[in-house]
Amino acid sequence: MKPNLEKLKEAYGYLIANGIVKTQKGLAQQIGMSETSLSSAFRGNKSYLNDTLFRKICDKYEEFNINYFTKNKGEMLNTQTIGEKSSNNVGNNINNSSVSINEVKEFAKVSENFQLLLFNKDDQIAKKDKQIDKKDEQMDRLLTIIEDLSKK
Q1: HEC profile for the chain?
Q2: Which regions in the chain score pLDDT beneath 50?
Q3: What is the per-residue pLDDT across 108-118, written as a single tens digit (0 to 9) for each?
Q4: Domain ranges (residues) in the chain
Q5: pTM listed for this prediction
């Protein structure tokens, strides 16, 4: 069972890898959520990282399987949607050779691996941001101490 944060990052990575969204801000706008709330969800805040968020994502993007996010059942991508897309509009590529559902699934796996790389980078950036915030707080405390000492 994947934690909700990992599932959110997986969905976000899929959307980025497929050119559906470019930023968290873009995702927030598309699902009708404030940037601050979505950012809190990406930082693991459980108040925002909940079924309501996943319903908004799945309502906006039909390729996602709501049961994967809310009940930990099935795959992230809605296989019915993939099948419909492959029979309706994937069918033939530029060279008129057919594209199978297995090829679509393989692409999804490659896409998921790419997403994991993106997530690791996002996590590293978040950790560095926290370190910078901590250093800023320390600098502020030092400046206060220096000011207090210079007054004496």
Answers
A1: CCCHHHHHHHHHHHHHHCCCCCCHHHHHHHHCCCHHHHHHHHCCCCCCCCHHHHHHHHHHCCCECHHHHHCCCCCCECHHHHHHHHHHHHCECCCCCECCHHHHHHHHHHHHHHHHHHHHHHHHHHHHHHHHHHHHHHHHHHHHHHHHHHHC
A2: 81-97
A3: 777 777 777 77
A4: 4-151
A5: 0.55
